[in-house]
Structures are given as C-alpha cells and as structure tokens.
Specification:
Layout (H helix, E strand, L loop, with lengths): L2 E6 L4 H14 L3 E7 L6 H4 L7 E8 L4 E8 L4 H11 L3 E6 L22 H11 L4 H10 L6 H14 L5 H21 L4 E6 L3 H10 L36 E8 L2 H4 L12 H10 L1 H18 L6 H17 L7 H12 L22 H11 L14 H12 L9 E5 L3 H15 L5 E5 L10 E6 L5 H8 L6 H17 L5 H11 L3 H13 L6 H17 L9 H19 L9 H16 L8 H12 L6 H14 L9 H9 L3 H14 L2 H4 L3 E2 L12 E2 L1 H10 L3 H15 L4 H15 L6 H4 L5 H20 L7
Parallel strand pairs: 1-6, 2-5, 2-6
Antiparallel strand pairs: 3-4, 3-7, 8-10, 9-10, 11-12
Helix pairs in contact: 1-3, 4-5, 7-8, 10-11, 11-14, 12-13, 16-18, 18-19, 18-20, 19-20, 19-21, 20-22, 21-22, 21-23, 22-23, 23-25, 24-25, 25-27, 26-29, 27-30, 30-33
Length: about 800
C-alpha cells in the first residue's frame, strides 16, 4: 500500500507524458486528480468524446456572494491525461479538490491558476541561475525540451524548492487538507495496489507530508480512516463527502466549450502557460516538429497580411533558431529559441518595449505587427466542441424553446423587424433583450429606442454566426433556470453595480423596462428605488431621474407609464439629488452631467410634484441657498438661480438676472461663463426676454430706465480688456451652446439693433474660421500696431 505523488504544471506536455507513462507502468488502484469533487458522479459525461479544449464551469450565488470558476482541460493537460489513461488502465478515477464555490477559492476564477505569484522569489533566483528571462523560459529549459529520463525527480526537486520558500494561504491549506483526506481514504481502499495522486506541483509537498503524518504506527493494520484528524465528514462508503452549498444558494457545474485563445497567457489566462497552439504541436509531434511548424505558420500569417517575408528571411529565422538552441544548450528547440530567431530575422526596426515572451501577461497596445502575428501563431485558433449528448443547464433548453416558439430561430443570417406596438413583436423584443443583457452573442440590435422617451416604436435585429454562443449560454445558466429569471438576476447585479458607480444606472433601468419581465421587473424597480438613496454621483442620479420620469409620463409601449414603482424611483432620486446638490463643491469648469441633473429636478417638480415627498417650496428654497453659496461651483450656482426662478411663485421670486450677472462678473470672465452655462441650462428665456424696469419707479434711481440680461451682458463683454476677453471667450462660448440656432439668431438680431446696424444676424454666427482664432488674431494685430506706433514705424490704421 503506497501513494505516488506527481506534482505537475497545469497544461504542460512534459507533465502530461509523465502522467501517462506512470499510469502505464504503475497500474494503480486509484488515480486521484486535482479537480472539482462534485463532478465525480459525472465523469462519464466528462469523458464522452468531446473535442478539446473544454472546461468545467462552476457557479455559486447566494444573497451575499456570487462566484464563477473554470477548470479548463486540453489534450496535454496532465489532469485530462490522468482521467483518460487512468480509466483505460482500469483504475478508480476521482477528482479530490473542493468545489469551486467553496470559500477556500475566494475570488479565484481559474481552478488551475498557477501559483508562481506565490513563489516569485524562488523562481526569480532560478531564472538568474539559468540565465533566462521569465518563468516560462525557465520551465521550458528544465522540463519541456529536456529528455524525459529523470523528469519526475527534477519536478520533485523543483516544486520542493519553490514550495519551501512560500507559505500557503488559508484557502490552499483547506484545499490540501481536503485532498489529503481523499488520499488517505484511497489508501485504505487500495489494498496492496498503489494510489497515484496528480496535483499541481505547489500542493505536492504538502500532500505528501499530510498523508505521511496520518499513517498508523506499528503496522497494526488499523483502518487509516480511524486516524484521520482533518475534520472532513465521511460518507458511508468511507470517502470524504463533497461539501454542499447552503440551502438558499444556487450552485452547479457544467461543461462548456473552451478555446486556445482563452487558454493563452498572452490573452490574460491565469495559468501562466502561454502559446497553447505551439504546445499542442509539442504534445502531438515533439519539439522539433513544433518548431518547424511554428516557423511556417508565422511566415504564412505574415504573407497573408501582405507583410513581405522572403525565402531568405525564412532561412535566416531557421538558422537563428538553431543557433540559439545550440548556444543555450537546449537538446531541442525551445519555444523562446524559435520566437527569438523569428524576431531577429523579421524585425529590422527598433522596438520600444521588450518582446512579450521575456515576461508575462497580455500584449499591450501598439505591439509590433510581426510580434502580434508571432503570438497569434503560437496561440492557435482551436475551439472546443462538446459531444451532442452533453447535459446542459435548464437555461439552454428554455432559450431554445422560447426562440422556437417566437420564430426567432431563423438561422445565422436572419433579420427581424419588430413593431413594438404589436404584442407578439413586443414579446420577441423582450426575449432578444434578455439575451443581450446576459451577454449571449448571436443577435444584434441594429436600431430601436435608445431611452425612455425616444419616440421610436420599431426595432431591427440581425442574427449573426458567432463563436462562443454555446459556452455563453451555459455560463449564463449561473443566473437562473429560465431566461426571464436569469436576466432579472443579471440586472439585479447591475443595479447594485450601478449604485456603486461600476455601471450606468439609467441604462440598467431602461434595460429592465426593455426586458419586460413582469414580476421580475417589479422587483428590479423596487431594488433600484431602494438603492438610489445611496448614490453619491449627482450626474448618474440625474440620468436615472430623467429616464424614470420620461417613462412614467410618456411610455406608450412598455406598459410602465404611471407605475407605482417608477414613481418610487422618481421620488427617491429627487430627494437624494436635492441633498447632493446642496452639498456640492468643486472648482472652475462646467459639469454638464450635474446640470442635466438640475434640469431633471426642475422637470420632476413641474410635472410630477404629487409623487414627491419633498415639497416644491422646499426645492425652491434649497435652490436659492445654493445660488448664493460662495463655496458652490459657479455653474451650479447659475443653475440653482434658474431653478429657483422656475419654481418659486411669481410674487416670491427674489433677485434679478442682471444684478446677479454683475455680481458674478466681479469674480472673473471664466466664472461668468460657468455661471451663465448653469443659468442657460435651466432658463434660456432669461436671455431673450424683453427689458423690464431694473428698479421700482419710485425707487432711489427712477431715471435708470429698463435693462435686460442681454443688455447687461453686452455691456460687460464690451468693457472687457482684450486679454480678459480672450481668456474668458471659451467659457462664454460654451455657455451659449445651450441655445439652438434659431435662438442664437434672435440674440444676434438684438445685438445688431443695440448698435443701430443693419444686416443679417446670420453673418454674426457663420464664420469661415474659429471665432476664438479670429479674436486672438485681432488681439495680436492690435498688439503689433501698438508696438510699431511706439517706435514710430508707421503702424497700419
């Protein structure tokens, strides 16, 4: 009775060959593999005959936590070879790791993520010793291109060294304790036959120590299970029980197709093993053939993209690769030898960054085109495919049934034009939107309403062939068993993200309406109504309020007009916005999102005051306080001034725009431009209304006459020195962008009238150059004229 522990690197061809040879020579009673133990009853499903790569997708969700995880397998994954070869050899094959939802995995989304980050000190030391740039080059140097003789001993020494410098965290200790319990149970069942344990090399030293520590002393033959002190519950068959998720949680595991692109470290895959297409060739044909194939594929890809690569370039790349192989002492070409040879022969210009295979992680933007093609050639384009008999989550079947019932399964090139006023087409739209919010590719909306008050009542969708649809459907099954339930859960998650600032809350609200999920949408609106009171972003909250108010007032399609829950969203958002706006602080500049929020408050008080718990008079009072707050941003002060004038009863309106403009202008032209932007966002008519008496006729200056905001502003601008005018011109122009073209023409007409000038107002608005450039040119000309006059050089009049 003995256990043989093989520590492996995930997705390593050398380790996969070692596992296969060990099983052939050992004939073990049990083969125990690092993997999700909840799949043990479904190993027949895993071994159906899929086209690899595939992955075990696991999901978990409860009220406080949601987690997903993948355990990918390809032809040369040691875990896959252990399952396949162990079953062929007649061994009992079992996964022995905790379920992916278990807290031991924390936020880890890839079960087979390498542990190099936990022992970087050891690998860095080894990289320096062997004069290589990265852990991947180190791994190839020690294992992938070396002879298989002595491989197990080299792996043991390597993993003992790197584990000796690292301390496992609580999650790894829990996993190792659980896996050790499986090993002890297998030893108790195996009799005189050996047990083979295949796990990541990081765990191997700990499992060996934990198993040895639990063996009975004195050879008294006692059942090992009587000596276990790990605390894991055992079933009646003596094997450790698979921990069950809480009763109120949704959890499960399903097979999904995977791709080489997803497996590649250059695309961000966490295993750290790069270039799956290249290593597939190593697995199938050996390093010599893989090197030659890589050379041909890279040259073919470059030529297909019209990058000139001559026969002499190919010969040079091959010669460089062989030379580097010899120089570095490799018995066979390593991946880095081939890549460096290609780079040396094909890249003649300077590179502004290190070659990607000298480090880790995805390619950055701006990578050299030849490097991009080399990495793509190494990655490969293989996509896995599940066997037709593979069980799928209920969502997959529900989606297929819904699409068929609504005649939305017309093939990969179908097009659908939907009339949203028609009940059947509206239901079709809702189904397609539910797929969209779940991220299921294959249907793309080309046109349709973009927001709550968009007067568009038709949609056009196109069905397109895409890779990854099947996997996306399986993964979306983590949200629920039916399409409506899954979309509702996904939108609920987005609602929470929206409140925290990670998503667009207004878009989430409109998506919920587009999905039209009856009771589910009611829950979502209730969730949103309860959470908008936590938002700290006035701009985002204004978008929610504008969308909710528009739907509540004007919806004619989706059945949510005058809805009580929309009313709740409107009320909570308005109340929160009033509070946020009064406490807003900031520097110069215009916050357009915040100004739109003030507009939304004004429209809500005007058109839906009966929904609000805050009274219009209170909103007007807050606006008046903000307008006079010296610490508030000038754009908000101007908007608050306009909001107060819009909401306060006529007899209670305090202050006049002309006087307020004079007061703000003393703070500078930029401040004036910001203030006007706020005012015009709320009350453009203040600019074009006719003049009124500035003071009562019996006031202290009865002869002052009448003036308008336009009169005052024109006088202030004309009195500005050139440098002040130039400095403030961008802010002033930005403020007047709130006026549509027709209203700008009216203002231009008034300005011409003030000067007694005849002409078209459009001539003031349409220039061949940027007005700011014209103003700067005029200022420059005047400066030059003054300089010439100073030296009596005949300045031009």
């Amino acid at each position: 009775m003995s256990a043989v522990f093989l520590g492996v690197r995930h997705h390593s061809p050398a380790c996969a060959r070692l596992v296969e040879r060990t099983i052939d020579g050992l004939h073990p009673a049990h083969v125990l593999v690092e993997g999700p133990a909840e799949m043990n009853g479904r190993l027949d499903e895993l071994l159906l005959g899929h086209e690899l790569p595939v992955a075990v997708f696991s999901h978990y969700r409860d009220e406080s936590r949601a987690a997903t995880s993948w355990a990918p397998l390809c032809d040369y994954s040691p875990e896959w070879v252990a399952l396949r070869a162990g079953r062929a050899a007649g061994a009992e094959v079992r996964f022995i790791d905790l379920p992916a939802w278990h807290p031991a995995f924390a936020e880890r989304t890839n079960r087979y993520a390498d542990a190099e980050a936990r022992y970087t000190e050891a690998t860095d030391r080894l990289c320096r010793h062997f004069a290589v740039d990265s852990p991947d080059a180190l791994w190839d140097r020690l294992f992938e291109v070396e002879p298989d003789d002595g491989l197990a001993e080299r792996l043991d020494a390597y993993f003992a060294l790197v584990r000796g410098d690292a301390e496992a965290d609580a999650g790894d200790r829990a996993r190792e304790s659980y896996m050790a319990a499986w090993v002890r149970a297998a030893l108790a069942e195996a009799g005189d036959r050996p047990v083979l344990v295949v796990t990541g090399g990081f765990h191997q030293p700990a499992l060996r120590a934990l198993t040895a520590a639990a063996r009975p002393r004195g050879g008294d033959g006692h059942d090992l299970r009587e000596h276990d002190t790990d605390g894991w519950e055992r079933g009646a068959d003596g094997w450790p029980r698979v921990p069950a998720p809480p009763e109120d949680a949704l959890a499960g595991s399903f097979l999904v197709p995977y791709s080489f692109r997803q497996l590649d470290a250059f695309a961000g895959y966490q295993s750290g093993m790069p270039s799956p297409g290249y290593y597939q060739q190593v697995w199938e044909s050996g390093p010599e053939a893989a090197a030659e194939s890589l050379l041909r594929v890279v040259v073919g890809r470059l030529r297909a993209r019209k990058v000139p690569v001559s026969t002499s370039d190919l010969i040079a790349a091959r010669s460089l690769a062989h030379g580097l192989t010899t120089l570095r002492g490799h018995p066979h070409p390593a991946r880095i030898d081939v890549l460096d040879g290609l780079a040396g022969a094909l890249i003649t210009d300077d590179l502004d960054r290190p070659l990607p295979w000298t480090g880790r992680g995805p390619l950055g933007a701006g990578a050299h085109p030849v490097v991009v093609e080399m990495v793509a050639a190494c990655s490969g384009d293989r996509i896995g495919r599940l066997h037709p008999d593979t069980p799928a989550p209920p969502l997959v079947h529900d989606v297929a049934a819904r699409l068929a019932a609504l005649s939305l399964d017309g093939g990969p090139e179908a097009s659908y034009r939907l009339d949203l006023t028609d009940a059947t087409d509206l239901e079709r739209s809702r189904v397609l939107h539910r797929l969209r919010v779940l991220g299921i590719p294959g249907h793309e909306r080309v046109s349709g309403p973009e927001h709550g008050i968009d007067p568009v009542f038709t949609e056009r969708w196109e069905s397109r062939p895409v890779a990854g649809r099947e996997a996306a459907l399986v993964e979306a099954g983590a949200y629920g068993a039916t399409l409506a339930e899954a979309a509702a859960v996904a939108l609920a998650d987005r609602t929470r993200d929206a409140v925290s600032g990670a998503d667009d809350p207004a878009r989430t609200l409109f998506d919920a309406v587009l999905c039209g999920m009856d009771g589910f949408s009611q829950r979502l609106l209730g969730e949103l109504a309860s959470r908008v009171g936590e938002s700290k972003d006035a701009g985002a909250l204004g978008e929610i309020l504008s969308t909710a108010l528009g739907l509540w007032r004007h919806d004619r399609v989706f059945g949510v007009a005058r809805g009580a829950l929309l009313a709740g969203v409107v009320d909570r958002a308005t109340e929160r916005l009033v509070w946020l706006l009064e406490g807003a602080r900031g520097g110069p500049g215009v916050d357009f999102a915040r100004l739109r929020a003030v507009v939304a408050v004004r429209d809500t008080v005007r058109h839906a005051a009966r929904l609000l718990s805050v009274r219009p008079e209170a909103v007007a009072s807050v606006a008046w306080r903000i307008s006079g707050d010296p610490q508030a941003p000038f754009d908000l002060r101007g908007a608050a001034f306009g909001l107060h004038r819009a909401l306060a009863p006529v007899q209670d309106v305090s202050g006049e725009p002309a006087g307020a403009v004079r007061a703000v202008a003393r703070a500078g032209t930029d401040a004036l431009g910001d203030w006007l932007a706020g005012l015009f966002a709320l009350a453009r008519d203040e600019m074009t209304e006719p003049a009124v008496p500035a003071v009562p006729a019996d006031g202290p200056n009865p002869g002052r006459g009448a003036e308008s905001l336009l009169d005052v502003l024109d006088g202030l601008v004309c009195a500005l020195p050139d440098d002040a005018f130039l400095a403030g011109l961008p802010a002033l122009r930005q403020a007047f962008m709130f006026f549509p073209p027709r209203e700008r023409e009216r203002i231009a007409e008034r300005l011409l009238e003030r000067r007694g000038v005849r002409g078209s107002s459009r001539s003031l608005l349409r220039t061949t150059e940027d007005p700011l450039l014209i103003a700067r040119a005029r200022a420059l000309e005047e400066s030059v004229s003054r300089l010439l006059a100073r030296y009596d050089l005949g300045a031009t009049p």
